[in-house]
Design brief:
Strand order of the largest sheet: 3-4-6-5
Distance between the termini: 131 Å
Oligomer: single chain
CATH topology: Muramoyl-pentapeptide Carboxypeptidase, domain 2
Structural class: alpha+beta
Order of helices and strands: HEEHEHHEHEHEHH
Number of domains: 1
């Protein structure tokens, strides 16, 4: 009897021990699960694709010698930079365009460009007339002296260049008129269909409006909507888009 009681007690103790062990084991599992829930999920790190930086072309550097080279189409001529009295371009030709006088000539590159420009204008129902082109030093001297005699030196200096200071001597400048000639060498030319067409399109053929309105202090001359200077298509387009004068664009104000 005593053995039976002892056996029962032992069995109960074993069952109790097993129950307690299971409880503690289950609590540990729950704690492990709780810990797992607190661990942040580390997503797969995908390294971003790094696009190569675009190559920036350095700005074109203009060789300033070009502004003083008599053979350059970018030669600088103004009140501060004179041409030699004996200078005459070696490649003068007569452009095949409508003109108001005979014998007008330009440097060959400028002559070809002005022919293209006049032909394109005709396609747009615009008739352009060449009024003046290359002038020799001596011819410019006569013109200037006549203007001084007529209007006085101070006034003449606003619209006429002294000999050696005229772009016309380069063979790269052209004075352009409408077919009627009614607005030739007049500021009213800017409002004519011809003047408007030239202002908007001349750069496509390498010409710039050399003495624009509002830039008299820079250029030294009054607004001349008829005077166009050849500098080549690339440079003419840059100057046109900049809304600057030749001197301002190349920073050659001295």
């Amino acid at each position: 009897m005593n053995k039976l009681i002892v056996s029962i007690i032992v069995l109960l103790l074993i069952l109790l021990a097993l129950g307690l062990g299971y409880r503690f084991f289950n609590d540990d599992l729950n704690k492990i699960e709780e810990i797992k829930e607190d661990i942040p999920v580390i997503e797969e790190i995908i390294e971003p694709t790094i696009e190569p930086e675009p190559t920036v072309e350095p700005e074109k550097t203009i060789n300033t010698d070009m502004f003083y080279d008599l053979d350059s189409i970018l030669i600088l001529v103004n009140k501060k930079h004179d041409l030699p009295s004996d200078y005459e371009p070696s490649d003068l030709v007569k452009p095949n365009v409508k003109s108001n006088k005979s014998g007008l000539s330009l440097r060959q590159e400028a002559a070809l460009a002005i022919e293209e420009m006049f032909n394109k204008a005709l396609e747009d129902d615009i008739t352009l007339v060449l009024g003046s082109s290359y002038r020799s030093y001596s011819y410019q001297s006569k013109l200037y002296n006549n203007y001084v005699a007529k209007d006085g030196e101070e006034k003449a200096n606003k619209y006429s260049a002294k000999p050696g200071q005229s772009e016309h001597q380069t063979g790269l400048a052209a004075d352009i008129s409408d077919a009627s000639g009614a607005n030739y060498l007049k500021q009213s030319f800017k409002d004519t269909p011809e003047g408007i067409w030239l202002k908007d399109n001349a750069h496509n053929f390498g010409f710039i409006l050399r003495y624009p309105e509002g830039k008299e202090e820079i250029t030294g001359y009054m607004f001349e909507p008829w005077h166009f200077r050849y500098v080549g298509i690339e440079e003419a387009t840059k100057i046109y888009n900049s809304n600057l004068t030749f001197e301002e664009y190349y920073n050659i104000l001295d």
